[in-house]
């Protein structure tokens, strides 16, 4: 039997536990600071047993999945005693900092990042189908065990992800700065306008869609923004320059320029959708 410990039974951790139900030859355990969450996860059958302290159970775990913030994950890895050679992975949205600061030669650390989530947090919002059809990013290094890489891929497929992308920590952070973090910055910025308070009755789907991810966990996302500040700042600069470009065309009543701009961006969006459909 393989013992799997999920650290942090929030939205992602709770969903991971539920999605792993029935994984062959495995027993899933949970670690959380909230007794009520542990009790609920046990009652749901998401975990076989839950604990609030890691020290007693951690050395018995073959696989540890860290579903906490990046700093908390690094601190956990660097200060806890693991089973020698245990596979340790995470679900954090930044990888450069993780690979730079993880200092534990007793484990086999593989970076992970499921591209899935909801606008609400907590175990009570977790669901076993959260990862169904989602992409999953794996950040590996040469020293990783081939067996561990395969096991993690098996887990990822089992929880419902349909595409696994293997990449470097640098490429991960550059791409996520654009595909995820910039989107949250833009959504939050759109909500930094008092006109939103009286938009009811004046909005359709575009306002809802463009601001959807502004309903977020401020503490977690502030940490992600700062830990990936170099790549994210570059994407904000690119976005700001593009925004200024179309602003000037609007101010100058440059209809032809606006049409050209919208044609180029529309075609790029169509190419993205076409590639997505092919996959």
TrEMBL record:
Q: Which UniProt keywords apply?
A: Oxidoreductase
Q: Name one GO biological process term.
A: tyrosine biosynthetic process
Q: Where is the Prephenate/arogenate dehydrogenase domain?
A: 2-279
Q: In which pathway does it act?
A: Amino-acid biosynthesis
One Pfam family here? PDH_N
Q: GO molecular function, one example?
A: prephenate dehydrogenase (NAD+) activity
> Hey, which family's this protein in?
Belongs to the prephenate/arogenate dehydrogenase family.
Organism expressing this protein natively: Congzhengia minquanensis
Give the InterPro entries listed for this entry: 6-PGluconate_DH-like_C_sf, NAD(P)-bd_dom_sf, PDH_C, PDH_N, Preph/Arog_dehydrog, Prephen_DH
Give the domain of life: Bacteria
This protein's name: Prephenate dehydrogenase/arogenate dehydrogenase family protein
Q: Which Gene3D superfamilies match?
A: 6-phosphogluconate dehydrogenase C-terminal like domain (1.10.3660.10), NAD(P)-binding Rossmann-like Domain (3.40.50.720)
Q: Does the keyword Oxidoreductase apply?
A: yes
């Amino acid at each position: 039997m393989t013992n799997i410990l999920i650290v942090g039974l929030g939205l992602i951790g709770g969903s991971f536990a539920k999605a792993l139900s029935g994984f062959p030859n495995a027993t899933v355990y949970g670690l959380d600071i909230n007794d009520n969450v542990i009790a609920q996860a046990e009652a749901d059958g998401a975990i076989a047993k839950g604990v609030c302290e890691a020290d007693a159970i951690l050395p018995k775990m073959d696989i540890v999945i860290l579903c906490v913030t990046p700093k908390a994950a690094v601190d956990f890895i660097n200060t806890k005693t693991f089973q020698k050679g245990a596979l340790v992975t995470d679900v954090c949205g930044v990888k450069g900092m993780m690979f730079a600061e993880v200092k534990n030669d007793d484990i086999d650390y593989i970076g992970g990042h499921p591209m899935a989530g909801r606008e609400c947090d907590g175990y009570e919002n977790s669901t076993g189908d959260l990862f169904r059809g989602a992409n999953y990013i794996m950040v590996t290094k040469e020293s990783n065990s081939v067996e561990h890489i395969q096991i993690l891929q098996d887990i990822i497929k089992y929880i419902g992800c349909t595409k696994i992308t293997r990449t470097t920590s640098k490429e991960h952070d550059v791409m996520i700065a654009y595909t995820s973090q910039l989107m949250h910055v833009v959504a939050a910025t759109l909500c930094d306008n008092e006109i939103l308070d009286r938009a009811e009755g004046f909005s359709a789907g575009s306002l809802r869609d463009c601001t959807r991810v502004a309903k977020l966990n401020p503490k977690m996302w502030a940490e992600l923004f700062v830990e990936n500040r170099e790549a994210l700042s570059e994407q904000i600069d690119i976005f700001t320059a593009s925004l200024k470009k179309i602003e000037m065309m609007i101010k100058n009543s440059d209809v032809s320029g606006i049409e050209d701009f919208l044609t180029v961006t529309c075609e790029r969006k169509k190419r993205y959708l076409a590639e997505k459909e092919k996959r």
